């Protein structure tokens, strides 16, 4: 097992994610990943059209009573919404194909490691759970990170650019508010990451308990021992659930304040056009959603470190009495 640092008694924090090895896993899939990212980014950029066009549409109706222009803008918004959805559908389809290929490659490599472990006479109880839950953690630090990360970064940056073009001071309000959110949420993420690692360790222990207790099912104490293992999983899941709720819902709640602050400041500094205020609200909302998503993504990366660590530990199982190099992601 990779080195770990003890934190708060029995809780542990896993080693950092080996990013160079992770890159080695996704390198064979680079064409599919490039197509997936291109479609995702296209969807984000197309999604900027409705908030801007809606503001112009409202001004055309309220201030100028220009119905022909309003009809044209309505058509533009509808086309943009359909195109955005189409881009995301195609991107999600490519995501599924890429993730499935990654799962297969990782699980085959893990299975080879499990065979070597069995040949060496080591304990293999509980390994079955790694092929499901732990393998999925690698998907989160590869496909999910690339797809969601690119979408959130582009959404955040593009919305800021449009806000700067419309009302430069709005960017100041957004940046100051986001700095406060980042400071608050950073202090709450590490406990959630530790709780996620603890949950996975208890799941693995429960899986091992199932194998042992089924083999000794004539023992009258077998059900009580499994119940104890299941109760530990439940306790870990409850703790993780509360901490994740604090992070996700807390950051989401704070992010909702940002667009309101932008509109209020805009009204105070003299912005009189209703359509402009609507566009400012919708664009700042996209900026805050993008930032909030990046905060949540960071928490997800911390929460899956233990699973990634265990995957590579199994993949790196050496041959009995013969030390061999890693089979996957050696870079």
Defining key terms:
1% strand; mainly alpha; ABC transporter transmembrane region fold; 331 residues
Structural account:
This protein is mainly alpha-helical and 331 residues long. The protein has one domain (16-315): ABC transporter transmembrane region fold (Up-down Bundle), CATH 1.20.1560. Helix content is 79%, strand content 1%. The protein has nine helices and two strands. The protein has helices at 19-26, 30-46, 49-62, 67-119, 133-166, 168-215, 222-269, 274-303, 305-315, and strands at residues 5-6, 12-13. Strands 1-2 form a two-stranded antiparallel ribbon. Strand 1 and strand 2 form a beta hairpin. The protein starts with a strand and ends in a 16-residue tail after the last helix. Mean pLDDT is 78; it is low at 1-11 and 322-331.
Summarize the structure.
The protein is mainly α and 331 residues long. It has a single domain, classed as ABC transporter type 1, transmembrane domain (ABC transporter transmembrane region fold, Up-down Bundle), CATH 1.20.1560. It is 79% helix and 1% strand.
Spatial extent as radius of gyration: 25 Å
Please tally the helical runs, counting DSSP H or I stretches of 4 or more residues.
Answer: 9
Shape: elongated
Query: How many discrete domains?
Result: 1
User: What name does CATH use for the topology?
Assistant: ABC transporter transmembrane region fold
Report the portion of residues in β strands.
under 5%
The separation of the N and C termini measures 20 Å
Q: Which CATH class applies here?
A: Mainly Alpha
Please name the CATH architecture. Answer: Up-down Bundle
CATH superfamily: ABC transporter type 1, transmembrane domain
Low-confidence stretches: 1-11, 322-331
What's the rounded overall pLDDT mean?
78
What does the main sheet amount to? 2 strands, antiparallel
Helix content: over 70%
Query: What structural class do helix, strand and pairing data support?
Result: mainly alpha
SSE order in H/E notation? EEHHHHHHHHH
Number of beta strands: 2
Order of strands, main sheet, comes to 1-2
């Amino acid at each position: 097992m990779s080195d770990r640092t003890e934190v708060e008694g029995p809780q542990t924090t896993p080693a950092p994610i080996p990013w160079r090895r992770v890159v080695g896993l996704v390198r064979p899939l680079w064409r599919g990943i490039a197509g997936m990212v291109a479609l995702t980014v296209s969807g984000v950029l197309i999604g900027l059209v409705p908030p801007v066009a809606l503001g112009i549409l409202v001004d055309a109706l309220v201030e100028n009573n220009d119905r022909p222009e309003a009809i044209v803008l309505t058509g533009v918004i509808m086309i943009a919404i359909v195109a955005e959805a189409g881009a995301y559908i195609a991107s999600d389809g490519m995501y599924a194909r890429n993730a499935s290929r990654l799962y297969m490659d990782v699980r085959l490599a893990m299975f080879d490691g499990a065979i070597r472990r069995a040949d060496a006479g080591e304990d293999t109880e509980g390994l079955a759970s790694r092929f499901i839950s732990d393998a999925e953690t690698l998907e989160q630090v590869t496909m999910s990170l690339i797809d969601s990360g690119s979408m959130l970064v582009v959404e955040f940056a593009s919305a800021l650019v449009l806000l700067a073009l419309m009302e430069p001071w709005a960017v100041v309000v957004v940046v100051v508010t986001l700095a406060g959110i980042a400071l608050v949420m950073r202090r709450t993420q590490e406990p959630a990451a530790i709780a996620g690692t603890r949950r996975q360790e208890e799941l693995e222990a429960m899986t091992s308990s199932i194998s042992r207790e089924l083999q000794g099912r004539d023992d009258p104490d077998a059900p009580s021992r499994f119940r104890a293992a299941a109760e530990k999983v439940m306790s870990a899941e409850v703790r993780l659930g509360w901490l994740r709720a604090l992070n996700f819902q807390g950051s989401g709640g704070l992010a909702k304040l940002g667009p309101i602050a932008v509109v209020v400041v805009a009204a105070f500094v003299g912005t009189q056009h209703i359509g402009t205020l609507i566009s400012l609200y919708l664009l700042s909302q996209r900026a805050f959603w993008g930032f909030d998503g990046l905060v949540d993504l960071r928490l997800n990366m911390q929460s899956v470190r233990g699973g990634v660590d265990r995957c590579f530990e199994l993949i790196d199982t050496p041959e009995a009495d013969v030390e061999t190099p890693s089979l996957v992601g050696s870079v």
